[in-house]
Hints:
It contains 8 helices and 8 strands.
Amino acid sequence: GYFAEEGIDLTLVTGFGADKTMTAVLSGEADIGFMGPESTIYTYLGETDDPVINFAQLTQRAGNFMVARDDSDFSWQDLKGKTVLGGRAGGMPEMVFEYILKKNGIDPAKDLTIDQSIDFGSTAAAFAENQGDFTVEFEPGATTLEMEGKGYVAASLGEDSGYVPYTAYSAKQSYIDEN
């Protein structure tokens, strides 16, 4: 009821990733998208006539976690030679993960295997079924894995990455001009 109390007529729809959210904005299915700001850069580089603009940043830290199979002390070096269920190539979750790896002297292309074949939102279930040695999870996936005894939160990507422009509200320039 908050939006209605403020006189805002709003319909919320879950986009399931910046790629799908950007598609909704570009196609006109959504007026405003809430996503990682990388998608606006990708579409801008595609030289669209009506670029999508990030107009308000919401978060400045990653909100996901490294989940391990056991609850022993974790070091990023533990990922060497292992398989990690990661995110979509070019998306903020994956870029932040790879940034952390590089900060810790780990080459994402050579020192471990990052499985990017699992759809957004399905990695926790895949991990619970014994895929991968580690997984990068948002909530409630990370806590659910712990509660089921199938994984343990080992690190916060938001804490280990530091400040990054993680999520922003975005709209087509024409929508911003009109509203």
